[in-house]
Design goal:
Layout lengths: L2 E16 L4 E17 L3 E5 L6 H8 L7 E6 L2 E2 L5 H7 L3 E4 L3 H4 L6 H11 L5 H14 L16 H13 L5 E5 L7 H18 L2 E6 L2 H7 L2 E6 L2 E7 H6 L4 H8 L50 E2 L5 E2 L6
Parallel strand pairs: 3-8, 3-9, 6-7, 7-8
Antiparallel strand pairs: 1-2, 1-4, 4-5, 9-10, 10-12, 11-12
Bound molecules: iron/sulfur cluster (SF4) and magnesium ion.
Magnesium ion (MG) binds next to loops.
Organism: Vulcanibacillus modesticaldus
Keywords: ATP-binding, Nucleotide-binding, Transport
Pfam family, one: ABC_tran
Length: 321
């Protein structure tokens, strides 16, 4: 397997202003030095509670948010070094699907116009070719070409997400960041959309970064899973290994709350004490130490590095050095 994307020490800090002079008095460390690789054709899931930095990481990769620091190496090229015009062109290869397709689709535009727009932006085809492409896209995502003149509100939630997927696909991207793509949908519709995404991945050789707080959904679709907490990656492993053998105490707690398919297999439910600390004032050392039942002295002082403990299973915890 070959990495199509390498994220290196990515940081996104938002300044906090205060005082009469409205000066920077601190930073919200939304993403605080995250590194990982994504292999060609895989689905890497980023999971964690809201505010852990997974969406910010996804958007920074596409430079929809400007990273504060770090490198985003896509097919050997550092995207952070590109100017706006170069990045605009490169974005053909990197697309995004949003959680709420209704909010991301212009309500006054027909499906035809919505799907044609990226083609126009990237100078793809003439009017007739674009029309043909839009019809083809609708069929590819399981919609009917008779629906081409309809507006977003005339579709169901699941159909709108299919339109969002078609829009991302329209420019033949290589990598798609899917940010909670099924979280707004009924459970009965979720698996249809996930299955569609899997079919499209196979058909077009797509690579996905799949962002979700829902570990049942991630179990369905991911090849590998990265767990984030307070802007840091705390564990990264193959899906099966992560679900069967979670090593980080935070991952163990997250997974203990997920129903398991095998009714004979009971996992102890781990209740995390306390709230997630503020990302503007994260705990020193291991950021999880305020909630960790294995906390040691060293945990409050030293930041644990993310290290490979074997088979590409990475973990940032002083218990595993
Ligand atoms: Fe818990 Fe320490 Fe590991 Fe952090 S480093 S998860 S506090 S044992
Ligand atoms: Mg989010």
């Amino acid at each position: 397997t070959e990495a199509i994307l390498k994220v290196e020490k990515l940081k996104k800090y938002y300044p906090i202003y205060g005082g009469v002079l409205h000066k920077t008095i601190g930073y919200v460390k939304a993403v605080d030095g995250v590194s990982f690789e994504v292999n060609q054709g895989e689905t890497l899931a980023l999971v964690g509670e809201s505010g852990c930095g997974k969406s910010t990481t996804g958007r920074s990769i596409l430079r929809l948010i400007e990273p504060t620091e770090g490198r985003i190496i896509f097919e050997g090229e550092d995207l952070v070094s590109l100017n706006d015009e170069q990045m605009r062109k490169r974005r053909r290869d990197l697309q995004i699907i949003f959680q709420d397709p209704f909010a991301s689709l212009n309500p006054r535009h027909t499906v035809q116009r919505i799907l044609e727009e990226p083609l126009i932006v990237h100078g793809i085809g003439d009017k007739n070719e674009r029309k043909r492409k839009v019809v083809e896209l609708l069929e590819t995502v399981g919609l009917n070409k008779e629906q081409i003149k309809r507006y977003p509100h005339q579709f169901s939630g699941g159909q709108r997400q299919r339109i969002g997927i078609a829009r991302a696909l329209s420019v033949n991207p290589k990598l798609i960041v899917a940010d909670e793509p099924v979280s707004a949908l009924d459970v009965s519709i979720q698996s249809q959309v996930l299955n569609l995404m899997e079919d499209l991945q196979e058909k077009f050789g797509l690579t996905y970064i799949f962002i979700s707080h829902d570990l049942s959904v991630v179990r369905h679709i991911a090849s590998r899973v990265g767990v984030m907490y307070l802007g840091s990656l705390v564990e990264l492993a193959d899906k099966t290994e992560l679900y069967d053998q979670p090593l980080h105490p935070y991952t163990q707690a997250l997974l203990s709350a997920v129903p398991v398919p095998d009714p004979d297999f009971k996992r102890e439910r781990i209740i995390l004490s306390g709230d997630v600390p503020s990302p503007s004032n994260p705990p020193a050392g291991c950021k999880f130490h305020t909630r960790c039942r294995y906390k040691m002295d060293v945990c409050t002082k030293e930041v644990p590095d993310l290290v490979d403990v074997g088979n590409g299973h990475y973990i940032a915890c002083h218990l595993h050095r």
